[in-house]
Amino acid sequence: MDDKTKELNAIATAMVAPGKGILAADESSPTIGKRFAALGIESTEENRRSYREMFFSAEGIQEYVSGTILYDETIRQSASDGTTFPEYLKKLNIIPGIKVDTGAKDLAGHPGEKVTEGLDGLRERLAEYYELGARFAKWRAVITIGDGIPSDYCLEANAHALARYGALCQEAGIVPIIEPEVLMDADNTMETCYAVTDKTLHTVFGALYRAGVKFEGMVLKPNMVVPGKKSGQKATVRQVAELTLEVLKKNVPASVAGIAFLSGGQSDQEASAHLNELNKLGGAPWPLTYSYGRALQTAAMETWAGKPENRAAGQAAALLRARANSAATYGKYSEQLETAGV
Ligand code: 13P
Question: S-S: 16 plus which of 107, 226, 258, 319, CB 3.0-4.6 Å?
């Protein structure tokens, strides 16, 4: 490894340190607005700020969280004590990260498919985010399963964008989280999810290789292999873990610094149980951890509900999920942890 790759590798390794995972708190303002609206919380800038502060200041969260993905608005905001959020997180030994894609847009000429945008001006934006304290970034590609889709063209377009983003991040001294998400909300079987994930990862790693992205200085954020939500198919925790590990081993170079799964709409308990089983299986050449958004935040957001008096209860809910997923990185999660209290 050259010196630059060693620096990236040190950050990436810290992101997937034993017992720790990543808090994906990078919902764009429209996305968090939707989550707030569902709970009757007004989506003002101050409410978004105080919600994030509630989460970041939960006592001891840094024992379970290695890094936090922020959104452009949040990386520029401050905690109540006046410390900017990146500074606040750094003091807790939590690495600040930043979402840099500008969203998945309709792919022209390919109905039902998306391509993620955000490459124009990315070099300059990364330089600014580095100055603001970000040491890793996230770019999410969205792959939809449906009639005759995903097309090869959609996979290639998204892989190309992920690879260009990855190379730009590494040039800037920022670790890229490479997130090719195969969605789980369709009516496909688990076997189809496996086949699409297989092809997606194969296409993405080919593009990363050609772009010169250093695998030691990146973190992969994949979906797990699960049946589509509308399929009616039931899979055991063991089946999900086995097929997920199999498809990763088939496609992901051992030199990748770590794998941090997305939760993608799994329930809180499923997301913890699946990660736990993956770690119990053993034999993976990479650390396997979480980079959960919904599966870490839903309970805390519901409990907080935008009311200052619920702050401590929201923090307790946040810590419960963080602790459960931390235990899952050791294969030591159990149902009892759900009711153990904090
Ligand atoms: P979920 O865990 O809610 O899928 O969010 C993770 C994420 O960052 C999606 O880009």
Answer: 258
User: Is the shortest distance between the CB of 263 and ligand 1 below 6 Å?
Assistant: yes
Ligand 1 mean position, distance from CA 18 (Å): 21
3 state SS of 146:
strand
Task: Report the nearest-CA residue for atom 5 of ligand 1.
Answer: 293
Q: How far from chain centre, in Å, is Cα 146?
A: 24
Phi, psi of 195 (to 5 degrees): -65, -40
Would residue 271 count as lying in a domain? yes
Residue 44 counted as domain residue: no
Ligand 1 atom at minimal distance to the Cα of residue 290: 2
At 22, is the secondary structure helix, strand, or coil? Answer: strand
Number of structural domains (the chain) is: 1
- Structural domain contains residue 199: yes
Over the stretch 4-18, which tens digit does the pLDDT of each residue have?
A: 999 999 999 999 999
pLDDT in tens, 98-147: 999 999 999 999 999 999 999 999 999 999 999 999 999 999 999 999 99
The answer to whether residue 179 is catalytic is yes
Ligand 1 atom 4, closest CA: 264
Q: Is 221 annotated in the active site? A: yes
